[in-house]
Design goal:
The structure holds two protein chains of two kinds. By secondary structure, chain A is of the alpha/beta class. Chain A has eleven helices and 14 strands. Chain A has a six-stranded mixed β-sheet, with helices on both faces. In chain A, helix 3 crosses helix 4 and helix 5 runs parallel beside helix 6. Chain A is globular, with a radius of gyration of 22 Å. Chain B has one domain. Chain B is built from ten helices and two strands. A two-stranded antiparallel ribbon of chain B has the order 1-2. In chain B, helix 1 crosses helix 5, helix 3 runs parallel beside helix 6 and helix 6 runs antiparallel to helix 9. The model of chain B has no long low-confidence stretch (mean pLDDT 93). The chains are: A alpha/beta, B mainly alpha. At the A-B interface, helix 2 and helix 3 of A face helix 1 and helix 4 of B.
Chain lengths: 301, 252
């Protein structure tokens, strides 16, 4: 459905995307993960023909991009990072007008609007102005708007950033429904639980390049130890130096929390018996651990 | 549907928004020139019986048509278009559909020119009601209004594409639109100005528009009509072409 080969993009002297290649099959959910500034959004925009790459070949829905990007977008839905719903129109009018931009007949769009309103859970808000919607409602409407042309592929740029947990879960449920209908989804996110929940495959991107690509499960298995022991509290630094470095397969002290990655944590846990003032959390490794291992803990601003 | 007409979706979008405010828009379009014509025309006109060989009310009215087109088209292509470009991200949203930057910029250009034309028509209507229009040939002023609107919308879209904030438009109005309004023969003949200013005034787009419209509305011969039309066309096409390139760079 989407093939990207050798993608490069510079903005001025800054090389934002440095040789990215990947393929997304029909019906697949593919996630681009990475810290801020990793080049996720630029990669997405190149795939849609909204930004012209400096080098590389892109094929979207069998059409070359950017040469025939406009035609390709006829069968694509886009959910941008920042809402750009039209504030001059109501909820219903937003859907209708967007259908117009696709050159769809008025009746055709009108027939689809009730379904889209229902999908967004906004049937009772059909005539409300955009300003009256909550953040979660706006997101759902933006997703519904992207479905106005019944697209085969959806591009979502950070679909749940800024939403509360209830709203996020509702968006996930809606996206799963789209996957169930056989649509292809390509999304960017920096929420690892989101990627783990939705994506068949993920790519971790950093400084413009892919540093890992696999299914979330395979990445966790391949890149990281299965058990994580988190220890925090007064005196954690002393305990860390005395035991964690020696007994954990890999250990990091970040602030006043020790992260110990282990294959067999029993010996390490035993040392904690003498430290009742330290608090301990034992959990399975997840995608976020892989992400932090591969991209580091430094802030990216 | 041919590709070249996709810009009509953008025109239609703006038309739908405008329709929501129809009453306010029409009242403004009609009352504003009426006040100007009655106030300046009768007040000043009684002191100046003949200006440029014409009764002052007729002179002023035909100039006001072009001023109205310029003002309305400029305002739409500056403040309103900039809101859609920046604050509302409306253009960005439209680009998610199978639309291009060219479709958007041409759509905004045509829409702003149509809004300008509507203002001109309102003034022409007020003039006709006051008995200031000489015959049906005045309807030929309509294409001139549209062309004038396209010229000013083209320039304004270039400014919009370059603007960082609304503040830039104040400079454009203060340094370009207002002085042009004063020297382009809207309120008094350009011949009254010092020769050096006249030279500048003659190449300004509003001068071309005023001379064309005045001749057509009042049924008088126009000197160098082809040159005026060609100048307005050149400005219009150059403006929209440059604006398209600048917007494409800005939104890439």
């Amino acid at each position: 459905m989407l093939t990207v080969h050798g993608l490069h993009k510079k903005f001025g002297a800054l090389e934002v995307v440095r040789g990215v290649s990947f393929e997304v099959g029909a019906g697949e959910c593919y996630g681009l993960l990475g810290p801020n500034g990793a080049g996720k959004t630029t990669t997405l925009r190149c795939c849609l023909g909204l930004t012209t790459p400096d080098a590389g070949e892109i094929t979207l829905d069998s059409l070359p991009v950017p040469a025939r990007a406009r035609e390709a977008r006829a069968h694509v839905g886009v959910v941008p990072q920042f809402d750009n719903l039209d504030p001059d129109f109501t909820v219903r009018e937003n859907l209708r007008m967007f259908g117009r931009y696709f050159g769809l007949a008025r009746e055709q769009v009108a027939a689809r609007v009730p379904y889209l309103l229902d999908y967004a859970g906004l049937a009772d808000k059909a005539d409300a102005p955009i300003d009256a919607l909550s953040g979660g409602m706006k997101r759902r409407l933006t997703i519904a708007r992207a479905l106005v042309n019944d697209p085969r592929v959806l591009f979502l740029d950070e679909p749940t950033t800024g939403l509360d947990p209830q709203a996020r879960h509702l968006v996930w449920e809606r996206l799963k429904r789209l996957l169930g209908e056989g649509r292809t989804i390509i999304l960017t996110t920096h929420f690892m639980d989101e990627a783990q929940r939705l994506c068949d495959r993920v790519a971790i991107m950093d400084r413009g390049a892919f540093i890992a690509e696999a299914s979330p499960h395979a990445l966790i298995e391949r890149e990281i130890e299965p058990v994580v022991i988190e220890v925090y509290g007064d005196g954690v630094a002393a305990w860390f130096e005395a035991h964690a470095r020696r007994l954990a397969t890999r250990a990091e002290l970040s602030g006043d929390t020790a992260f110990c990655y282990c294959r067999d944590p029993d010996a390490l846990l035993a040392t904690l018996a003498d430290h009742p003032d330290l608090r301990v959390l034992r959990r399975s490794a997840n995608l976020e651990d892989v992400f932090l291992k591969l991209t580091g803990r430094d802030l990216r601003d | 549907m041919t590709d070249a007409l996709r810009f009509r979706h953008v025109v239609y979008r703006n038309y739908r928004v405008w329709r929501k405010l129809l009453a306010a828009s029409l009242v403004g379009n009609l009352l504003d020139p009426l006040f100007w014509l009655v106030g300046l025309g009768f007040g000043l006109g009684s002191l100046l019986p003949v200006v440029g060989g014409l009764p002052y009310l007729e002179f002023l009215g035909s100039g006001m048509i072009c001023y109205g087109v310029m003002y309305s088209a400029s305002f739409e292509a500056l403040w309103s278009a900039f809101a859609r470009l920046k604050q509302q991200r409306t253009w960005e949203g439209i680009l998610h559909a199978p639309m291009t930057v060219t479709d958007i910029v041409v759509g905004e250009w045509v829409w702003a020119a149509l809004k300008g034309t509507l203002s001109g028509v309102a003034i022409l209507t007020v003039m006709a009601a006051l008995g200031l229009v000489h015959g049906a040939a005045a309807l030929w002023a309509l294409p001139v209004m549209l062309l004038t609107g396209l010229a000013f919308a083209g320039i304004a879209l270039v400014i919009t594409a370059l603007a960082k904030s609304y503040d830039h438009f104040v400079y454009y109005f203060t340094l370009f639109i207002t002085p042009m309004m004063l020297v382009s023969g809207v309120f008094f003949p350009t011949a009254q100005l010092p020769p050096a200013v006249q030279l500048v005034a003659h190449v300004l787009p509003l001068s071309h528009a005023t001379q064309l419209a005045r001749g057509l509305v009042l049924g008088r011969p126009i000197d160098g009509a082809v040159g005026h039309i060609a100048a307005l066309m050149l400005i219009a096409v150059t403006g929209v072409t440059v604006a398209r390139a600048l917007v494409a760079r800005r939104l890439r």
